[in-house]
Design brief:
26% of the residues lie in helices and 35% in strands. It is an alpha+beta fold and 373 residues long. The chain folds into two domains: 284 residues, no CATH class; 29 residues.
């Protein structure tokens, strides 16, 4: 069963990625063209033309036909990209070949792009951006709503240093988990007869055995990106995955994976095993308490896929410190660590104490009067 699922998925991916890689030049005026997330089209800022994926593919196919390149196999042209290592924090950022200068989205350090990309950068699919930069700005400004301890000027748009859309590398894993879990359980019942209260405790040994299939378990493949933040902006809707095409990167950044593959595999297998164990334990219902005594679960890898997922990163400098926020480029989920105004915190603590103290005095006074009467 697992083998059939794997073969079916591989065949699907092969069909999806078949075809020529799109360029990032406007078919109408030859200017640089960018992917517009809101319109889900490529839009030229120079002449105003808009093109769908099908139209871009048609133009590319026609151009390739003129050059008699139809028989050449698909190959991602690595020369279309350049990369650099930030001198401040060491992060590796990837951009298209037309970018001459940029900044590090992690620390804000300015850098000049000089080195060509090296190594393997061949994701199978990606999820295109579905949200725009302005939404990230709006969500950042809305952080103070309902949060009285947020510094008054923190959400001022002037504090935002950089907002950039980045394709973050991810591994997606498919697993089949099988095995068993053993538990000791208790069922406590009580009743009263006359003036006597009775309690009965029954003891059980429970075994749960079975198998489960998991698909598209994500693991962040970048060591530079905060895993806690990345996990918080999940989930992504993987139905929006499309065959990788470097044209989608136009106007955005992308990062090359640098996470150890064995480490990522173990993390995904652990998540699959933990979920299976929890479901097995939860399936034993009707008991007062349960305690796992042993577990024997194996996670067999069915398939693995390297993809790029869209994220808006917001760098904010406030109080001499750098704060990083992130927004899911597909769903708009926004997350980040919000600083607390210490003066406000002290004020609210004192205010709470004062109100509690006054309330106690009033209640004591009322009881005193009632007792006197």
């Amino acid at each position: 069963m697992a083998k059939e699922v794997k073969e079916e998925k591989e065949e699907k991916v092969k069909k999806e990625v078949k075809g020529k890689t799109l360029g990032t030049i406007c078919p109408a005026c030859n200017a640089s063209i960018k992917f517009n997330a809101k319109a889900n089209k490529w839009k030229c800022d120079y002449c105003g033309s808009e093109f769908t994926l099908e139209e871009m593919e048609k133009v590319e196919k026609g151009s390739a036909s003129k050059k008699n390149n139809e028989e050449k196999p698909e190959k991602v042209n690595l020369d279309d990209y350049v990369s650099y290592h930030c001198e401040a924090c060491g992060a590796e950022i990837i951009a298209d070949d037309q970018t001459a200068a940029t900044f590090c989205v992690y620390c804000g350090n300015t850098a000049i792009l000089k080195n060509k990309l090296s190594g393997n950068f061949a994701p199978t699919r990606l999820i295109p951006f579905r949200t725009e930069k302005v939404l990230a700005e709006d969500k950042f400004k809305a952080l103070a709503k309902g949060r009285p301890l947020v510094p008054k000027s923190f959400t001022d748009i002037k504090n935002i240093e950089k907002i950039r859309g980045i394709y973050i590398p991810f591994w997606l894993y498919d697993f089949k988990v099988h095995g068993n879990v053993m538990m000791n359980a208790q069922r406590v019942s009580s009743w009263r007869s006359g003036d006597t209260h009775y309690t009965k405790t029954d003891y059980f040994q429970i075994i749960r055995e079975g198998s489960m299939n998991f698909y598209d378990i994500p693991v962040d493949a970048s060591t530079r990106f905060d895993n806690a933040i990345m996990n918080s902006i999940e989930p992504f809707n993987y139905e929006d995955l499309v065959p990788y095409n470097h044209a989608y990167l136009s106007g955005f950044y992308a990062e090359k994976y640098d996470e150890d593959e064995d480490k990522a595999l173990k993390e995904a297998a652990f998540r699959a095993g933990k979920t299976t164990k929890n479901l097995m334990v939860d399936s034993a219902i009707g008991y007062t308490s349960k305690q796992v005594t042993s577990e024997n679960l194996d996670a067999d890898l069915i398939d693995r896929e390297y993809v790029l997922l869209p994220v808006w990163m917001v760098n904010v400098k406030y109080g001499g410190e750098q704060h990083t926020f992130a927004m899911n480029g597909q769903t708009g989920e926004f997350i980040g660590n919000i600083p607390i105004d210490k003066k406000k915190l002290v004020f609210y603590i004192i205010l709470t104490f004062a109100l509690t103290f006054i309330t106690c005095l009033v209640v004591s006074f009322i009881f005193y009067k009632l007792g006197g009467n």
